[in-house]
Every structure is written in structure tokens, then in C-alpha cells.
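May I ask for an example protein's residues together with how it folds?

___
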Amino acid sequence: MSALPKPPTLAELVFSLKSFAASMLALYIAFGMGLPRPFWAMMTAYVVSSPLSGTVRSKAVFRVAGTVIGSIAAVILTVSMVSAPELLSLAVGLWVGGCLYLSLLDRTPRSYAFMLAGYTAGLIVFPAVSNPEAIFDTGLARVEEIILGIVCATLVHSVVLPRGLGPVLLGRLDAALRDAECWTLDALNGADAGARAGNRHRMASDLTELRVMTTHLPYDTSDLRWMTRPMRALQDRMVYLLPILTSVQERLATLRRPDGTLPPDLAPLLEDVKAWIAADDGDTAGADALTGRLDRLTAEAARLCGRGAADWRQPTRLSLFRRLHALVDIHRDCRDLRAHIRSGDDALPDHLDPLVRRRSRGVFHLDHGMALWSGAAALLGIGVVCAFWILTGWSSGSAAAMMVAVFTCFFASFDDPVPGIRTFLVYTLASLPVAAFYLLVVLPSFDSFPMLALCLAPTLITLGVFVARPAVMGRAMAMIFGVGGALSLLDTGNGDFASFLNSSTGQVIGIITAMLVTRLCRSVGAAWSARRLLHAGWREIAELAGRRAVPPADGFESRMLDRVGLLATRLAQVARDDEAASKIDVDAIDAVRDLRVGLNVVELQRVRPALGPAAGPALGRLLDGVARHFRALSAHRPDPVPPALLDSMDSLLTVVGTVPPGPERDRAVVALAALRHALFPDAGVDVGGGETGLTEETIHPDRVSA
């Protein structure tokens, strides 16, 4: 923390003072209630504090619920198995591991309930082993101390100068909207591949962060909490820019002539689209004119597709016009939703209501395997410490077991939890002299609570300032956890040097054990996690292509978009690590391409009944080929895309061209062309002349595939 000697800002100081006030309020009430270990309440108040009051409130209810559930489990397990310490240790380990597994599968504030239910049982069971008759009183006291800290922190951060999540979220949202418009203009201007990939990764990462932040919005103190559904709808629309804009870029690259220019009828259209996006002035008339023009171009391209031959020029044009139409619609919807959110009006305009009603439910990518391994690491760590404790009769075994339960849970969501646990270990060791001073000098001599608070203030307020700084928050929390944890492990009336030394030794050994066990069976790198995300997406695409029933699209879209965001974060880490970068080809990874492949597979499955039996064999061969390819990728057989798939696509396009004109046929043509561009980006089309023949026929697509 010495690397940041700058003086605290006003916001950092206010947060630190509020956190200190909440912790002292909890400590004062705990002393007044005569709780045996009141410093649990003080430490809990710091653990749950956050600079954004909405985040504190969103987690408070779930933290309380998890604490209560964990305490009930602790009482039941202790009463049932106190005479068999080996079984009790196994049962607690299974409980902690199982709760951690559920917590990692729930990427919402609700996950805190599962995590706390897990390690709270360990915090209650292990110290009570020496006095099992008092397990109910011990459990009740621990619940009271922890809930007291949660309630005090929530109350103070919600009432005293609350810093709402809304302004921060709006700032992030506005920045993402500006980035989206810049990316759109770069894409339409033909930016290079490196810039396009960087834009995609940044956009995906921003959208994932916005989704996670929005989960806390209903609990916020700002007026923006009433705009949760429009905010989610806006993010849903922005999410579709990822596959749509990537598709537009590819279609434009395909349709460009050898000299880099576009056909005469496309260049003016593209300039008009760019001008409207760059203006950003809410010009609805200009948007209506553009969409009407695109409708006419779409209708003509659809008419020219029905020739019964494998001619990809018109399908590519049709796909481009549909994508540009979707692009204009998305930007218009985003601007309208942002204006509505800015107005703060509860009444939603009629044209925005459908967008809000059909917003996604936030389906996230779930990694059952890693969640299971994390739970197994917690079980193994608790088992190792408890075995040593039972065999040696070590008096501080309970402290070590408690720390293993806590630290195998705290960092389980990281790809590699070891650096975080190591940092906590280092700063826990650094905190021990401070903890010894308070336990052995301050506590025995203080004669009033104000004097105790005054003695604690310099340390806790200083550390609280650093907690508000993201770069050093972990180290500051480790210091607070070390001081508060050392004080919490001992009753206020029996603290002496020997007991402090034993409990501190147990605390340190528990953290070391958690770190070693995690390194042994749970520590992975960003490159490994990136490959795992890719393989999960490939398996799902293979499953979608292999189905014969119409698959649901919404869950796949949400999961794949979430994977894109998760992958972007990990690829950024890999790019900074030369050793990791040598294990994975960052430039070859395109999760957005996988997303588009999956969406178009779903679209072909959806229109299969309308194409009739004539298209069945050709469509079946194509989907079977796609399924085999992605199944091979997911099985670690990175074969290139089979060239036979190109022949299958040509055959299917020929058959689709004989289907009577209609929206379903057009959707099939667009999806087929999009799939061809995604799997064979270098397969060109004839972009020579040809009639355009605009008509007044209008097509309103039901859904734009990627």
C-alpha cells in the first residue's frame, strides 16, 4: 500500500468513516448484549461494506439468510456426530463444498447465501467441538454477532451519505454506448482485423460487467432503481451489436471489388447509414427513411435469390441489407431507451414496451466441472487440517479448520485463487503485531467504549481509505481481516499472549493449507479457462446442430454472449502473459464467430418445417457436418472446417431457391449465407454487375439471425 502515498479523496474518506462508524456501532451493541466475541460483529461490518450502497443492500438479505442456514446446519451436524469427530469433519467438509458448488453456479447476489451457509457452519462447528453441550448457545451467539455486523453496515451505508449505484452504472452505460457507436463507424469504414477484434473483446467485456452491476440495481438508493427493466432491455439490444456488426463487416468485405470499392448502389447507402449514426441527434425521420430504403433493397434481393441455383451474390446482399436494417434498429432502440432512462419517467412509451417485456432473463454460462472441483478443494483442505487436528490433539486446530473453510470459498471464483490467498497470507502476517497490540495492550486497559473506539480509529480509518481503492483493496481487507480475525478468535475476557500465539498460528496454518490445497487441485490459468470456455461453446453448437427438434434460441444466445465477455477478459490476461500466450493462439479465437454459427444453426432448424421435405436431406447433411466439426473441436481434435460443407451449402441453396417466396424462405437464405461466411470467410462470391431492379415490395423480417 506504500505504492499509493497520495492523500485520500473525499469519497474515500467518507467511505472509510462510514465503515468505521458501522463497525463501531456493531461492536458497541455487541458489547451491550454481552456477546462472547463481539469483534465478529466489527469484522463482519467491514467485510460487507462497499463504496456503493446498492451493492451492500443487495447482498445483505442473502448474507443474513446464508448465516442463519449455516448456523442451523452447524447445530444439526454437531448434535448428530459430536461423538465421531471423523464423521463430523467429513460432514462439515461436504457441507462447505456443496454450498460452494451451488454458490459458483449462481452468478447473482443470491450466491452469497450459499457461500455463507457453507463457511458459517465451519465457523460455528469447529470452535464448539471442545464444548458441544453449548453448541446451540455458540451458534446463536455467532449468528447474532454476524447479523449485527451486516445490519449495521447496511444501515449506515444506506442512510448516511449513500453513494448510489445508479450514477456509476449510467456512466458505464454511456461510455459503452459511445464505444458502440465508434465501433460501428470503424466497422463500416473498414477498420483492420486487429482493431475489429479489440473492439469486440472490449464491448463483450463491458456488457458482461454491466449485466453483473445491473443485478444490484433493484436494491440501489438512487431513483434509477425504478429503471431496472429498461436498463436490462437496453443492454440486451447492445448485446446484439456483437454478432450483427461482425456480420456486416464480413458482408462488406466480401462485396468489395478488387480495388476496394463497393458496388455503386451500396456505397451511397453505407454513407447515409454512417452519417445517421454519427449524428446521434435522435432523428427518427432519418431512421425511418433508412429502414424504408433497406426494406426495398431487401425485397429486391430476396426476389433475385429465387433462381434455383447456387449463386451467393444475392444471398450475400440480402444478408447485408437485413443486417444493416437490424443495425439501424438497434442504435435507434438504444437511443430511445437511454432517453427514457434519463427522463426518469415511470410511463414507458408504447414502442419501447415490447423491448422491455421480452428482455432476456440473464441466462449465464455455468461451469459445473470447475464448481465441483472448487467444492472438492474445500473438502480436501478441511479434511487434511481436521485429520492433523484429530491425530495430534492440536489446541489451535479449530482456528486452522475455520480459515481453510473461509479461504477456499472466498477466492473460488478466480481462475487461479492462489495469488489472492497468498496476498491475504502476507498481509495477515503483517497485521499480527497490530492485533497483538490491541489484544494484549489496549483491551486489558480500556475502561470505556469511547476510549476503545478512539484507539481503533487510526488503524481502521486508514485501512478503510485503502479499501476504497480497487488496486489495493485486497491488501487492506487482509489487514483488517487479520486484526479483526485475531480479536474475534478469542473471548474478550481470556486474551493472553499464549492464546493469541496459538490462535494466530492456527490462522496462518489454515491459510497456508488452503493455498496449498488450492494450488494442488484447483489452480488454473487464464489460457486454460479460455480453452474451457471455447470447448463449452463448441459442445453446445454440436448439440444444437445434431437436434431434429426446433431448439430454443434464447438460452443459447445469453450463454454464448456471456462466454464472449468472459473470454474477452481472459484473453486480455493471456495477451499480457508471454508464457500463457505461447499456450493459446489468441488471434485465432473468435467466440463471436461461434455465437453466429450457433444462432444460424438455430435459425435453420426453425425454418426446416417451412422448407418442405425436398430440403430435408440437404439440410440434414449440412447440419450433421456442422455437428461433426464442432464435436471434433470440443474433443480436442482441431481439424479445419471440412470443404464438403461448402458443397452441402451450395446444394441446400439450390433447393431453397425452388421454395415458393416468403418470409421463411428468406430467413433460410439469410441464415445459410451467414453460416457460409462464418465457417468459410475466404469463400468469395461474384460481386460483378447485375440488375438491382428496386420494387416497392416490403419485407418485415420476424427475426434477424446473426
Observations:
- Residues 169-357 form one domain.
